[in-house]
Amino acid sequence: MDKKDALVIEPGDEILIRYRVLANKEVVDTSQEPIVLRVGEGKFMPIVENALVGHKTGERVIVLVSPEEHYGKYDPKKIQVVPSEKIPEGTNPGSIVKIQDEYGVVHPAILKKVEEGLAVVDFNHPLAGKTLRFEVDILGIKKKDSSSEDQEEARGEQ
User: Which of 67, 54, 64 is nearest to 9 (CA)?
Assistant: First the structure.
């Protein structure tokens, strides 16, 4: 067996990956170019990084992440009614607006509707309550404690 075939991802390794994230079959994030990720560093959610351990170059790893493991469940209590003057004029429903609370802290919210001097806004994260599907293509592995000739680099198809 070739030495390269034996390389599997372990915590602390640097890996070259491409990824995309879907929610309800809609792409919500994607890497335009391959990125370097140190496994266990916390760049991605722990469940995703942990799922990469044991995999090899050329593999695609698919991880389903429940709402509890990212932005939480959708909370209907986070829908509030505010005076419409807090909303910039010309803002359309579905747009993200910034609302200042009574303590001066600004919070992002999604404008649901405006009517009769009142605006309905949703302070839930747009991905709250959705299961995320991470699709990660492993393009290369650089071991955390090996010399340069032991490295497997992604070359060719990128």
Answer: 54
